[in-house]
Amino acid sequence: MSEAATKRRLLVVEDDAGLARQLRWAYDDYEVTVAPDREAAITALRAEAPDVVTLDLGLPPDPDGVTEGFAVLGEILRLKPDTKVIVASGHGERASALRAIDAGAWDFYQKPIDIDALGLIVARAFHVHALEAENRRLADAAAAVPLAGDLVTAAPEMLKVARTIERVAPADVSVLLLGASGTGKEVLARRLHAASRRSGKSFVAINCAAIPDTLLEAELFGHEKGAFTGAVKATEGKIELAHGGTLFLDEIGDVPLPLQVKLLRFLQERVIERIGGRRAISVDTRIVAATHRDVAAMVAEGSFREDLWYRLAEIVVRLPSLAERSGDAVLLARHFLARLAPVLNPAVTALAPDAAAAIEAWTWPGNVRELENRVKRAIIMADGRAITAADLELADPAGTDPLNLREVRDAADRRAVQSALTRAEGNVSAAARLLGISRPTLYDLMKAHALG
Ligand SMILES: Nc1ncnc2c1ncn2[C@@H]1O[C@H](COP(=O)(O)OP(=O)(O)OP(=O)(O)O)[C@@H](O)[C@H]1O
């Protein structure tokens, strides 16, 4: 990086050309931009995003008053609220200086300027800005890693789910987790167990879709010796193994009807009988079930028992898809990179910028599981220190170098509209509110991008 790029940027808004020149040369440590009026100031703010601004309140067309200066102050703070603005006021204008502080300015000084004194104020403003930025970064990082059970998220949509889980954990109610494949249903089930009073006992998971129907009953309920061919010894089922703890029934929507009846009986009576056994065995376990299926529709068509559904769904928690969790894809990619690279390929330590951009742009139909798999593969395939979009198999065949700003903006607009519509469940008025635009504008955008 060049020295200029690492220098801190100071914007001096000053209409007196002589004074502006003097200030420009006074501050070697900063990259100084001078703006003589409101338009130039806002253009420079947008282009350079300076952290500190010195602002002469008396600007044309009102060089003897303060109206223009206050207008610039207001606009700077609206566009970049973290900016430290130091206002300059003429002799005897202490009242306007104090009003400026009240309006959000960081500090003030009185003209005529004492370059050294102003230099100290500017240096302190940069220092405080840096501290505040670091604090925000740490707070974001802390919010992003509430790691019990390895749940990584900073998205409000998912943090809300995590809070619900924490709230229901101590109560012994059954919880049904609904979400697409790979959204982290098992991660949440483990988190629920860990936060419950059963955390000292076992968490037993069974994927009802992964086991053939004929074996599922024995897996769940266990069997006595000789109950069927091959039953050479008595075996406890998963339900029994979860005694005292939590039983996670993944893909509950795949349990066949006859077994649904047996499960319901267990949930009502809290006793089981092993296959081939006669003894009733009491089991105290908390049930957490999950499915990616539309169980309500299955109940309506008769392939899932309504009474079982109500037993399982005392609390229903819906998981947003990864695409609906703003910012989480890149956050999770970094998390998997940090966790997996030391094991798979320690030379890899970073995400290349094109990889981060491609991750943001991808729709993640396979959710977190797909992301984890792609990052795993990319770590293994990467040639250098950073994994690229190509390593993730997310490279745009036309190349990731955008044609122009319009193309980048169009793509960003499309993504924002799509995500707002998803979050608003297709409700156009709600989506428009989320985006801060009017309904007609949103309709225009939807038409332009062939959405909806
Ligand atoms: N928020 C998250 N933070 C960290 N890792 C996550 C998160 N969500 C999911 N994972 C990881 O992604 C993978 C898939 O998650 P999990 O098995 O919980 O999903 P699932 O919804 O149960 O999937 P399926 O329905 O396919 O069984 C796991 O390796 C899990 O550790």
TrEMBL record:
The modification 4-aspartylphosphate is found at residue 56. Residues 9-126 form the Response regulatory domain. It holds the Pfam family Response_reg. Keywords: Activator, ATP-binding, DNA-binding, Nucleotide-binding, Phosphoprotein, Transcription, Transcription regulation, Two-component regulatory system. Residues 151-380 form the Sigma-54 factor interaction domain. It comes from the Bacteria. GO terms for molecular function: ATP binding; sequence-specific DNA binding. One of its GO terms (biological process) is regulation of DNA-templated transcription. PANTHER family: ALGINATE BIOSYNTHESIS TRANSCRIPTIONAL REGULATORY PROTEIN ALGB, TRANSCRIPTIONAL REGULATORY PROTEIN. This is Two component, sigma54 specific, transcriptional regulator, Fis family. It comes from Sphingomonas jatrophae.
